[in-house]
Amino acid sequence: MKRILVTGGAGFIGSHVVRRFVTKYPDIHIYNLDALTYAGNLENIKDIEKADNYTFIKGDITDADFITGLFNKFSFDGVIHLAAESHVDRSIKDPLAFVKTNIIGTLNLLNASKELWGKDSGEKRFYHISTDEVYGSLGAEGLFTETTAYDPNSPYSASKASSDHFVRAYGETYGLPYVISNCSNNYGPNHFPEKLIPLFINNIIENRALPVYGDGKYTRDWLFVKDHAAAIDLIFFEGKNHETYNIGGFNEWQNIDLVKLLCRLMDVKLDRGAGTSEKLITYVTDRPGHDLRYAIDATKINRELGWKPSVTFEQGLEITIDWFLENKEWLKNVTSGEYEKYYEKQYLDSH
Ligand code: NAD
Ligand code: DAU
């Protein structure tokens, strides 16, 4: 039986990846390593926790000795690395936390993989999950391709760019077999409500203000999380060594248009009068260094691996909203305690 280490599998995207691999590949044992930070939640993967081919390990990728010990104990055949500090606003307040997890943590995993696999790494694979934010910001025209130069603007994207460079450098210098993918904005079930879509769904439910940064004319390219998990599956098994794949939804929305769509859908779901939720929209101080526009050219993964999104944005949003309305307990649990402190600092102190 093959052994694959997934890092960050209790988080938003990681939980969908872990579920997909555990249920689809009974002959592969999935080891889910997660530090269970504020963003990690075992509830996200409760349905598969008793599967025979699944083991959860609580641990921190910044602890080099622990990581070396883990690789020696389990002799992983592959790594799918998602663990990260992932929220741009938090990176602006505490960049060092992003350097520690996203850069040092990635380096620890690279070192442990290199040591374990040595020269006999032919069948092994280190898959690093990255973001389109490493490319910086687009103007009104154009798309990010795999050859777009890196130009990160936030501490988060700078830390992800740095980790991408280290992965590539380990491939060139030590022959480590790797693949990298850079994906656009995900949304879907289990999304932590500090990010735009789940935050606004939660605020609409709670009748709280919807804090739109700046003029709301920033553009993002949205992809349903299960389509990202499907792309990760394909790339892990069929992607070419030392290659990068861009993943995106061909689905650009200005924030304000997306927020208005969300308001309309939520009014229907909550049986509130048309226009009720839109009244909650509040323009607030902009995010420093706010990237104007992200948009991915996903032609390569479509042409070479046959991947394309399986749901439209309208279908994906409907699934997402229904999930949040059916999982109010989950929402209540993750928005108690530390979340309230974060919310106050982010939205009530600075805006
Ligand atoms: P998330 O914040 O929801 O989850 C991150 C997970 O990593 C959590 O379970 C957390 O407990 C764990 N973690 C954090 N620090 C750790 C540490 N030091 N050791 C071990 N585990 C730790 O993040 P996400 O949105 O699911 O993103 C997952 C990955 O995908 C990240 O690498 C992110 O950069 C990348 N990505 C995210 C998006 C997006 O839209 N969310 C898009 C493209 C790429
Ligand atoms: O592009 C991929 C990236 O997408 C991932 O790498 C990141 O991990 C993920 O967090 C996401 O980053 P963004 O900064 O684009 O996502 P966020 O949901 O924080 O913001 C989306 C847009 O909405 C952005 O233009 C900022 C704006 N926004 C966000 C929040 C939280 C608001 O206007 N108000 C808000 O309260």
Looking at this protein, list some descriptive labels.
Rossmann fold, 7-stranded parallel β-sheet, single chain, binds 2'deoxy-thymidine-5'-diphospho-alpha-D-glucose, binds nicotinamide-adenine-dinucleotide, 12 strands, alpha/beta, 3-stranded mixed β-sheet, 351 residues
Strands, helices and their partners?
Layout (H helix, E strand, L loop, with lengths): L1 E6 L4 H13 L3 E7 L19 E5 L5 H11 L3 E4 L6 H6 L1 H23 L7 E7 L23 H20 L3 E6 L1 E3 L8 H10 L4 E4 L5 E6 H14 L4 E5 L4 E3 H15 L11 E4 L14 H7 L7 H14 L1 H7 L3 H12 L2
Parallel strand pairs: 1-2, 1-4, 2-3, 4-5, 5-6, 6-10, 7-9, 8-12
Antiparallel strand pairs: 9-11
The site of 2'deoxy-thymidine-5'-diphospho-alpha-D-glucose has 19 residues, from helix 6 and strand 8.
Task: Report the CATH C-level class of the domain at 2-191 and 222-251 and 290-312.
Answer: Alpha Beta
Strand ordering within the main sheet: 3-2-1-4-5-6-10
> CATH H-level name of the domain at 2-191 and 222-251 and 290-312... which superfamily?
NAD(P)-binding Rossmann-like Domain
Beta content: 15-25%
Count of strand segments = 12
Rounded mean pLDDT score: 97
Report the CATH architecture of the domain at 2-191 and 222-251 and 290-312. Answer: 3-Layer(aba) Sandwich
> End-to-end span in angstroms?
53 Å
Number of helices: 12
Task: State the major sheet.
Answer: 7 strands, parallel
> Which of globular, elongated, flat, extended, rod-shaped describes the shape?
globular
Q: Structural class of the secondary elements?
A: alpha/beta
* Portion in helices: 40-55%
Find the CATH topology of the domain at 2-191 and 222-251 and 290-312: Rossmann fold
Give the SSE order as H and E letters. Answer: EHEEHEHHEHEEHEEHEEHEHHHH
**CA-atom Rg in angstroms:** 20 Å
Spans of at least 5 consecutive residues with low confidence: none
Distinct ligand kinds: nicotinamide-adenine-dinucleotide, 2'deoxy-thymidine-5'-diphospho-alpha-D-glucose
